[in-house]
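Sanity check

After download, print the first record. It should look like this:
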Amino acid sequence: MKRQWLLFSQVVTVLVAIWFVVMTLKPEWLNLRTTAVNGVTLIEAAPNVSGAPMPGSFSPAAKLASPAVVSIATTQANAPEHPLQNDPWFRFFYGDREDEAPQQGLGSGVIVSPEGYILTNNHVIEGATEIQVTLSDSRRAIAQVIGADPDTDLAILRINLERLPVIALGNSDTAQVGDRVLAIGNPFGVGQTVTSGIVSALGRNQLGINTFENFIQTDAAINPGNSGGALVDVNGNLIGINTAIYSRSGGNMGIGFAIPVSTARQVLEGIVRDGQVVRGWVGVEPIELTAELAETFGLKQTEGVIVTGVLQNGPAANAGLRPGDLLFKVAGQPVKNVGELLTQIASLTPGKSVKFDVVRRNLTLALDVTPAQRPKPKIQK
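Expected structure tokens:
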């Protein structure tokens, strides 16, 4: 055993000596080079003449996706003039407001079509009187709002430019926790920026951000100005639209949320085709299933939602759904909470019957429900 260790140490010593001699006399063999500056010899890595990315680099994905990510600058008109603006006493107490400049806003967007259609967030362009889009090649254009969907916080813009770079749409439904992703946008207006991270969670809802929530959570750095930008996979394909962050400081804390591209595509196609997003509606009022409610209703189920109200003559009522029913599946998909139920019902096609699985007094029933089109929310005056 002692002889083997001695032989091993001698071999290592010889290899180290060879490496030292080669590094000194022929550093190019080790992809190194030497330079002398004022008598000081420096060893530098040889330049990457081939232009190939470094091992593990996300450069190919960034180069593929970045040209299709644009910066959005919005202008909003001044607030309406106060009726007492010209009153001397009003101006004495509140000052002269005539010189207030229009409000400016910054965000990002993603070109998804050669025809110039751009996906972004509704909150980026809401209330804007002018929207200017700047491409990565510095071209600029005034954008037209094709439509918006506040329920998902998405909006569709269009610009009239030629030779537009277009991002490829990925499949957000196959994303998994732990997948590497890149966030591309214009944080704080500093210019296009690429950050990396992983998919931290899927199907995040009940955050109180949108009506319909099914967020991809990521720890890729997302900051103000990234809203509407791209979340892409390692192949440079779009899997989400960056929308919001959880932050106590206003900056990135490693918890960001993106709308899945599957949702964004549905909104895009609906707005372009019909001028609006058509969603299903059945007319029920649900609440979360708790241990207390399960005991009250004598339920053995641990997942689902309790139906507390059914709209008279609505699709659910016509199908036989009753208050007190435990709804645990819609079209074969499990329902775990109210957020999931709303999202699943909204994705149904109006006029097409689907199965609603419910538990009523410990009896399992399969009801055929034909959803109607979701009514537009009434504007409160």
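If your output differs, re-run the checksum step. Summary of this record's structure: The helical segments are 2-25, 59-65, 88-94, 122-125, 261-274, 291-296, 315-319, 338-346.
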